[in-house]
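Chains adopt folds. We examine one example:
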Amino acid sequence: MYDVMGATVESPDMETMRRVLDGLVGADGEHADVSLSHESGWCLSVFADGLVVWENAEDDAVVPGEMRGIGREEVLELLGLLTAGDIAAVQAFPWSG
């Protein structure tokens, strides 16, 4: 996981993910998101303006999905699912592409 300043957070637990999300409060134009990547190439990026992006960094053929305005607990649910490697559960959310 990467925090808002780009620092790596290894194997974050739920409390650590909460703290990383808290860092979005001080986000600016240069440092606007936090992200979590899985070894499969799938990545969730969460932006300070409420945008969440779901993409596979290793497969250019996959169109990134987006959601806006979802709650903090739902974002934490998504992050937890990705940490657990439950890609299908993350993909089941209503992403627009």
